[in-house]
Specification:
Layout: H1 7-15, H2 21-36, E1 43-47, H3 54-65, H4 70-82, H5 97-110, E2 113-118, H6 130-142, H7 150-162, H8 166-177, H9 181-191, H10 193-203, H11 209-217, H12 226-238, E3 247-252, H13 254-258, H14 262-278, E4 283-289, H15 293-296, H16 303-314, E5 319-322, H17 328-331
Parallel strand pairs: 1-4, 1-5, 2-3, 3-4
Helix pairs in contact: 2-3, 2-5, 3-4, 4-5, 8-10, 10-11, 12-14, 14-16
Amino acid sequence: VVSNKKADTIAAEINEYIFTDELLEKLYNLLDTVINKRTGKTGIWINGYYGSGKSHFIKYAHYCLDSVTSEQAFEHLLQAVDSYDTTKKGSKEEITPSNLMLLKKKIQASQCDNIMFNVEDETDDSSGERLTRIFLKMFNKFRGYNANDIPLALLLEKYLDKKGKFEEFKALVATELGYTWQYDAAQAASFELDGLLTLAHRLVPELDTVSLHGKLSSPETFNIGINDTLIPELKEYLKTKDPHYRLLFLVDEVSQYIGANKALLLNFQNIVERVSEDCNNQVWIACTAQQTLDEVSGGVDGMVDIHDEFGKILGRFDTRLSLQSNDAALIT
């Protein structure tokens, strides 16, 4: 699973990954696209049938982009590039050791971040904007906020963070209320909201606890949408970053999650479209699917409509990578 972050697992997944020429070309394409592309759509579609190694492939992309594992991942990748034959038919002449080192320097200088998750692992029971909620939850978790209660994260945690009081607040919650905020934030808000707001007001006296209490007591009134919430949060975050900064969402098994649900399909289409148009090519979404976009729509009731909608999604992905099942023995 993509959420496995144990050190020994990470080392094995990097050092035991065997690059075919095709895998090398596609990983180079993904990394080069994210760091160097300045115009067009910021969606990357990675398809392949079961056993093609999609999850391992995006993990390796994660390792290349993550500051902790980048050196190790690029060292192993460089060994594969050293053996890559640029003279054979169909090879990519740009894949050379010097170009790879240049790409590595750009990635590390740009301080790229990535948020990697299996979309089915993050499922909730809400409807309509379900994928919007998942993207927001993962973005909140990435920023150090709780991943379970979106209003709590955006109305209280982010506010305290901006005031430079969030860490002090978490310490007070632990000592005075007995909750470990990292794990118990949503539970604490459910049972000790008055106490939490009292502590927050102590740290930030100008906090309007009455208004905030009403909003956090009725989370269903908090509007969670792409244009109202997700995009503004991303744009606000990007204002704190260098123009060369990149944030990549690596989303595993998105087609399995969407299936024949047209509402989810439209929700995902709109997310990719808005991110492409509103985030200055700094936010990317790379997702894996067990088949091509066209094949996802096969066998669905209302197939023509669904097929048309998948066709619209396909237009949001300028970069499409197809992994072959015959590589599975090498990479799993």
